[in-house]
Amino acid sequence: MNKIGVFTSGGDSPGMNAAVRAVVKSALHYNIEVIGIIDGFDGMIKGTFKKMNYDDVDNIIHLGGTILGSARSEAFRTKEGREKAFKNLSEHQIEGLIVIGGDGSFTGTKILNKEFDIPFIGLPGTIDNDLYGTEASIGYDTALNTIVKAVDQIRDTASSHHRIFFVEVMGRDAGFLALNSAIASGAESVLIPETITDIPALAEEIKTQNKGKRSSIIIVAEGDDAGGATEIVKKVKPHLEGYELRTTILGHTQRGGSPTYYDRALATRTGVEAVELLKDGKTNLMVGIAGDDIRLTSIAEAIEHDAKPDLAKEDLLKKLLTA
After folding, report:
1. What's the angle, vertex CA 122, arms to CA 48 and CA 309, rounded to 5?
2. How far apart are CA 77 and CA 54, in angstroms?
């Protein structure tokens, strides 16, 4: 393989730049030319390609976001759009692809592979950590740290005014961020998509935790079945007369910031592995992590199965509460 393309797609996550850096530098080590595809599938269709060299990636390992950009592409959902994308790839003599993103990005590239037989390797880049086949995705650890820091700051004011804060975090379909940030930040309760929220029971739980004397922090995943933090407060308020309820929605702050050591190391190791897999003629694989070992999962498995958090951790929170 003489030339490969690399692109980032879907929501950005801290560590994507570290992965791009690893792909470019390791590919050049093997005398493989690297083409950066700007703005994901949209750039693939428009032909916004850039030849990458060492200077392009020398000082990006610490940067959040993605220097390659990311964009939605309705055109890529059509056969005509994908034909145009493949035509551009062929004209630039790109023989394989490395995609850094989530299940939507993998699904799109898998279709391209099926229709035009272009090899590709996927790197899991999503703060939600909802891809099957890896214990952690690139950006997840940084997002967790961002949430924990924010909750620490919120607790200062919550304690000063004896307020109950409902803090909404990302996680439309999976509760990894909410559950693990709740444990790490010392939150009193957590609401996640994987379990049914009982509003009256939640209110009683808060009364037991709080007794009107202390603050409480409730972490809410945006995809909880009862709604986000704002909707939860509306529903629980009639059950908590006399309590001061507040909401904080962390939003896109969770996507930003300099990646942690863990995300930089994960991105670097998996990025190098992706290049070596393409070089060895492999395709349709996602490079993940299990413990301290690289783990390979077929793209089909990664996108067809749901990753689920350990729900026993919810019980852990309850064991830490005192009346």
Report:
1. 130
2. 33
- The two three-digit tokens of residue 178, written as one number: 């909410």
Catalytic residue set: 128
Q: In whole angstroms, give the CA distance from residue 116 to residue 113.
A: 5
Measure the CA–CA gap between 188 and 320, rounded to whole angstroms: 8
3-state per-residue secondary structure call for 84-149: HHHHHHHHCCCCEEEEEECHHHHHHHHHHHHHHCCCEEEEEECCCCCECCCCCCECHHHHHHHHHH
In tens, the pLDDT along 213-225 reads: 567 899 999 999 9
Per the CB < 8 A criterion, the answer to whether 181 and 220 are in contact is: no
C-alpha pair distances (Å), 303 with each of 122, 124, 126, 298: 11, 11, 13, 9
Query: How many residues are recorded in the chain?
Result: 323
CA quadruple 232, 235, 240, 243: dihedral positive or negative?
Answer: positive
Q: Which pTM value belongs to this model?
A: 0.92
Per domain, the residue ranges of the chain are 3-139+259-304, 141-255
8 A C-beta contact, residue 195 and residue 236: no
Condensed to tens digits (0 to 9), the pLDDT of residues 137-189 reads 999 999 999 999 999 998 887 776 678 899 999 998 899 999 999 999 999 89
C-alpha–C-alpha distance, residues 258 and 64, integer Å: 5
**Cα 62 to Cα 260: distance, rounded to the nearest angstrom:** 8
- Residue-wise pLDDT for 76-119, tens only, equals 999 999 999 999 999 999 999 999 999 999 999 999 999 999 99
Helix 140-161 and helix 261-279, axial crossing angle in degrees, nearest 10? 160
Pick the CATH number of 141-255 from 3.30.70.260, 3.40.710.10, 3.40.50.460, 3.30.70.1150: 3.40.50.460
The one-letter code for the residue type at 250 is L
Identify the CATH assignment for 3-139+259-304 out of 1.10.10.60, 3.40.50.450, 3.40.50.970, 3.40.50.300.
Answer: 3.40.50.450
